Amino acid sequence: MRTLLLRAVLLFFIGVFAISCTSDGDGESAVTDDTDDSADDATDDGSDDATDDSSDDSSDDDSTDDSGDTTADDSAEPTDDGGDDGDDEGDDDVTEVQSGDSKLAAVQSAGVVRCGTRDALPAFAVLTEDGDHVGFDADFCRVIAAAVLGDAEAVEFVDLETADRFTALQSDEVDVLVRNTTWTAGRDGGEGATFLQPNFYDGQGMMVASDSEFGAIEDLDDGAIICVAQGTTTEGNAASEAARLGLDWEIRGFEDVPLLQEAFVAGQCDGWSSDSSQLAGIRSDFPDGPDALTIFEGVFSKEPLAPAVADGDTEWAQVVNWAVSAPIIAEELGIDSSNVDSFADTDDVNIQRFLGLEIEGDEETAVLDPGLGLPTDFGAQVVSQVGNYAEIFDEHLGSIGLERGVNALWNEGGIMYAPPYR
Amino acid sequence: MVSAPVSATRVPIWRNVRVLQWIFQLLVLLFAVLVLAWLWGNYQTNSERLNIPTDLGYLDNPAAFEITGNSMSQNAPVRTALYEGFLNTLRISVAGIIAATLLGTIVGIARLSQNWLVSKIATVYVEAVRNVPLAIFVVAGLSAIVFGVLPNIQEAWDLGFLVASNRGIAVPWFEGGTGGGLLLLGLAAAAVAWGVARWRRSVSERTGEPPRSGLFAGGAFVVAMIVGWFALGYSATLPNVDGRRTAGGIRVDPSFFALFFALVVYTASHIAEIVRGSIQSVPKGQGEAASALALSGFQRMINVILPQAFRVAIPPLGNQYLNLIKNSSLGAAIGYYDLTLVTQTTVGNGSPAIPAFALTMVIYIGISLFTSVFVNIANRRLALVER
Questions:
Q1: Which pairing describes strands A225-229 and A271-275: parallel, antiparallel, or unpaired?
Q2: Residue A81: band (very low, low, confident or very high) from pLDDT cuts 50, 70, 90
Q3: A112-199+306-412 CATH
Q4: ipTM of the modeled complex
Q5: Residues of A in contact with B47 (CB under 8 A)
């Protein structure tokens, strides 16, 4: 009896082995594949793992399926994988489905853009009591969804802590990170992120209590305690600024904004340093009222805040880039959410291209399709469902008193400059 | 009676239970190895795709953050930051273990006291604290105690030898002593103490009175240290408020204080239970015999009951020490730069996550194993030798 049981268990394990080893594995043993195949297979793996869970793919259910089993089977079927997964993704209704090994296809078939953001930064991304994410960054998530999927509400907001944001991007938990993240070389390289068109050019500032004896940043003399958020560029910048001014600050890091605010209210901090836009947002929401805090003029670092995607998928990066540029282009062309429908009969070729209207040529009419993978009317969708850059800015940031400043359009004194859509 | 003949045929391999068990175990091992290889291959491939390094080269990158209460520059490499974090973990662990053991032992004995009030207070303390998650104590230590109770620096409590505010608690500290000088002084004082202990033991053998060599030696050590300290011209400084800082003395970081408070209170409640249980495990006859020999209550505890109880208490005590060491990582929630928080910050600043956390895990395992070695040595030496 016992040997029978033993044999049965043995056979079960051998069976599991056999199945896992001979499955239609998407081999990512990059060792034997040539570089093209390995890149395809690798990106395939990412999107596959991410979306297979949501879409009902019974053939790929085995969890050891998409494995790096270094067996010869895998290297023998590089081309099979593309077609295989194309079928698996299966959603042929969307007209822009690319070949099945791209993040764009994965997002389109999932029908939702997973956007990494945060839940407690006033003006940028706040989770309200109704469960909505409201804010500048949250609206840019909606911009991307409106462009790629045609529906601004097709966003899955994933709230991330500062320490986890890049890990989530790397492990494909989110498709795009719109979380007021500064574009730096270290993040481009070591964090495996690709940064896109900045949606806000910011700088680091200093905020103090209005009733303290500090009138300027130089008054924060030796022994002042400056509170910052951990794990951001802020810490290093504050230390550099202290060294530059020859002051001896004590930099104290906190995990998140609420704890920092408590420390500040209790008097543990003399100054609070962060991106100026963040400081403005926090000030607007301060329990004692915005006048209890003073933000010093002047910034002491460059902080271009830009959305980010993971390295390795140029197509998806370009799609997001043009999606994020769309509100800026719309503002340049004078289109906003209230008048977007009135341009149906316009003669301006630039507007026709942007809104995906038919352009009269010499012999025929055509709609501009640059081959990015976006729907031809993505510009119109973005503007009508979310708004142009000015509208998004004014609603969230203008309302807390931030001026356009350096974020104005390039032909109005600022540096917001999007490439031409043609 | 003729016994049945022993079967001379051998069991075939495919039915031989021992062979099958071996094969089964080997297959499971193979399976585990393959799973690990698959995970590793997955990790390597995906990291290559994203250009994330998978080695330990990030240790040489500049840290880009400063550690509170430390003079490390932000341009120091990550390995220096990790080292400072490691030292911070050691500091809170050593301080916490010592304080928690003392407090826990006292509370544990108090719980067994004949005095109704004392024992009830101890019971309430143990039962209330044991059942609350430590993370709550840690955050409460910061929010309720440091921010709530301790005042602003402008209204700091100045007790002369102590200055308490929510920026830290400043205590007196020596000044002028170098590491080497202090060490020599300590060795000299220890030699004096040892001499005094020997003298007391010889007095006791001669006259029969209790030697109390520990007390005398300890006192001699302290006296020798103080005398030598001032003789060598070192001095101590008292803290006082100076603007927004405290001048003189040394300032205990408020996050350290909050974490220390939480860890000690929590771990002491567990240690109290262990001590109580171990004391109750000593046969009642021992205590009665000690009383019959006219030993005072204190002598009974120290000489008869606690030594026997200690033997039983060592394994669970070692467990609590390991718990305390690992729980110190909760300091990350309140800004105490222990090893965990330093790792989290470097990962947030661009170090690759998996090598960084793997290295941190290895360091924690090292610390824990090191502590276990000491606990096991104590265990072995005190164990009852069965004949």
A1: parallel
A2: very low
A3: 3.40.190.10
A4: 0.72
A5: 192
